[in-house]
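Please produce the structure of this protein holding KG4.
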Amino acid sequence: MFALGIETSCDETAVAVVSGTRQIVAQRILSQVDDHRPFGGVVPEVAARAHLQHLDRLIAEAMDRAGLDFAGLDAVAATAGPGLIGGVLVGVTMAKAIAAVHGLPFIAVNHLEGHALSARLSDGVEFPYLLLLVSGGHCQLLIANGVGDYRRLGTTMDDALGEAFDKVAKLLGLGYPGGPAVEAAALGGDARRFALPRPMKGRSGCHFSFSGLKTAVKQTWEGLSEDGRDDRARADLCAAFQEAAADVLVDRTSHALAEFPASASRQRTLVVAGGVAANSYLRARLAALAEAEKVRLVAPPQGLCTDNGAMIAWAGVERLRLGLTDGLDFAPRPRWPLDPDAPAVAFAGIKA
Ligand code: KG4
Ligand code: ZN
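Below is the modeled complex.
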């Protein structure tokens, strides 16, 4: 079985062909960072136009590398939300066109489910598992019970963690994309020099909040003299930010583990996925938590954490197996929660 996957929901134009035996047969990823860098962040219209400009060529290249023609595919899958709607429309329209012309099933993939299932592609993880999904748009803890079957335990009340990384990078003048820049800057830094808050740490439940942490970084930076705002201070502040973020992730995840009890027949598995899961320091801190809690930690390889076409193709494989295909009238969804039954987050009474 082979599925073509198309990912165009943000600033990567990504396509891949993945097999039912978990092989990434071919993939192409075109990052748009150079297009967006002058603006200091992703500009939706610029992104949509760049997807449109490059997608057909990338698909042709991936198919060529896979040694397949469209008739050799079993399904075409595309991210159909959540994300920047202009880009999503480009990918979905392309996938529907290929499906219509070649008589193939079309599969509308929830981008978050792409991240959620990436550990099943990389490591063959079995359901159920606890999922920490940390990306530019989301920060959630969920129990993944099956394809299309997720129970949300916690989410962020304000910023996603990747968003906080990006904002910290911007205010420290580290540019875009922010996450990798903050991680690189933090490498030589002393996390103890600046005291930063750990929002939500120690509170019951599994919700997150990162906007207070980002504001504390801003105030600390702006409180330094002009001379003091040097590379050393930048490195120390990035290290302190990363340590604070990790403390919060570890605390919240340990609460979620308490809501995901062990059973006699299986070892508990914690999966971390999404772009922020590419961060080596955060992975190491989660590995330490997993060891202490005697759970198996699975973090897909970094290229499968940040946005990619393989996770969308794989979600297509999983859905096709279950007969979960979609009509060509499927309307893309700019908002699309993984757990539609999740209770609304109670903001009242919760202070970061
Ligand atoms: O999953 P992803 O590629 O796109 C979304 O679905 O949002 O995640 C992108 C986010 C960005 O906020 C980016 O700064 C962050 O992931 N990110 C990182 C790292 N690499 C990417 N954050 C921290 N450390 C990294 N190494
Ligand atoms: Zn993503």
